[in-house]
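In this supplementary section we document a worked example of the pipeline. Step one takes a protein sequence of length 445 as its only input; no multiple sequence alignment statistics are reported here. Step two produces a three-dimensional model, which step three serialises into C-alpha cells for compact storage. The input and output of this example are shown verbatim.
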Amino acid sequence: MNLIYGIKDKPKFGQVVLFAIQQLLAIMAATIAVPAVVNSVTGSQMSASAALFGAGVGSIVYLLFTKSSSPVFLGSSFAFLGPMFTAFGGAASMAVGYAGLIIGALIAGLVYVIIALVVKFCGVKWIDKLMPPVIIGPTVAIIGLSLAGNAIGDLMTSSSEGGSVYVCLICGLVTLFVTVLVSTYGKRMMKLIPFIIGILAGYFCASLFALIGKNTGNDALVVINYSAMQNVKSIVSLPEFTFLKADWAGVNAAYLLTLFVAYAPVAFVVFAEHLADHKNLSTIVGVDLLEKPGLTNTLLGDGIGSAVGAFFGGCPNTTYGESIATVAITRNASTVSIWGAAVACLICSMITPLVAFLETIPNCVMGGVCVALYGFIAASGLKMLQPVDLNKNRNLFVASVIFIVGVGGMTVSFGAVEIRTVACALILGILTNVMLSKEKDESAE
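The serialised model returned by step three reads:
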C-alpha cells in the first residue's frame, strides 16, 4: 500500500492533532462500551472516562515496548467480558470485584509475558508454518465480518427514545457516504481525516433533524440525546480510577483461583487475535511487525499495557481492528498519530464537557463509520488470500471452515471461559490445515 505517512514520519503538529482525534473517534465507542456492558450485567459502576484513560496509558506502554514501530491503538477488550463478570460475581463485595479486575488483568498480562519469552527463544518461524496466509487471511476477514451485526445494529439505532429507524438510517448513511467520498475524492489533507469529516456531517444531520423535531413536536425526528451535555457540572475532573475503588483485603486464595481460571485461558485465545491483527497491519504498512519490532515486543507491550490500563480503567486492553482500519483507509501509519491519540485519551478523560460531547454522538452516526471500518478489515483479510491457490482442496476447505464458523458466529463456553468467534474460527482452521497437511500436489503428478 502507498502510504502517505510511514511509521517513522512526523506530520506537522496541527495535522497530528487531527489524526489523533480521528483515531480517538474510531476507538472510542468500543472502548467505553465494555464498562457499560459490565455495569449493566453486574450492577457495578465502572467509569467510561477511566476506561478511556486506561486505554491511553496502555497504548503508551505498548508504544514504548515496540519502540514506536507499530502503529496501532489499544482499547478495552470485549474478549474479557466473561472474566470481568466473574470478577464481580465471585467477589465478596463490589470493592473486592474492582480488585479482581486488576488481578485478572495482571494474570492475562503474565500469560502474554510467558508467550513472549517462548517466542524470544524459539523464534517466529513456527507461527508462519502454523498459520499460513490461507489461515490468517480468512481469520482477519472474520474479525471484520463478526462485527458486521454491531455496525448495522448501531446504524439503525436511535440514541433518543422515540427516534425513527428511518431517520437513524439517513444520518448513518450520510456519515458513511461522506466518509467514503472524502477518502476517495478528497484532497491530500481531507483524505487523512475522512472519519472526522464523516462524523461531523452525520452529527450535523442528526442535529438538524432534532431541531426540526423539537420545534414541531415530532419525536420520531430526534435520534440524538444531549442529556450528557446537560449533566456537566465541572470543566475538569479526575476519572473514578479502578484502583481507588479496590478492596485488596477481601481477596482470598479461592477468589484468586477463580480469577486465574477465568482470565488465563482467554488470554491464550486473545493471543490468536493479536497475531491476526499484527499480520494484517504488517500487510498494510509493508513491514513484517513480527520481525521488527518483533512479536516478543508486541506481546510484552500488549500484555503489560493491558495490565497497566486495567489498573486505571478496569478493562484489559487489546489491539483494535478499528485503529488498524483507520491506518489502512487514511494511509497514515505514523506512530506519532498513535502517541497523539493516547495523549488525547488522557486529556479527554479529564475534560468533562469533552467526554460529554463524545457521548452525545448518536449510535447511528458511529454505525455509519463502523460499516466502513469493519468492512475494510474484512476486505484486508480477503486481500491476503489473493496469492493462495484455492484450486487445491486443502486451501479451499481450510478457508471454508474459517468463513462458515466465523460468519455463523460460533462460540464455545467452558464454565466462565468463553472462546469467542474469531478464536473458534482460527482454531478450527488450524486443525483442518494440519489434518490436510499430507495432501498431494496434483500439479506435480
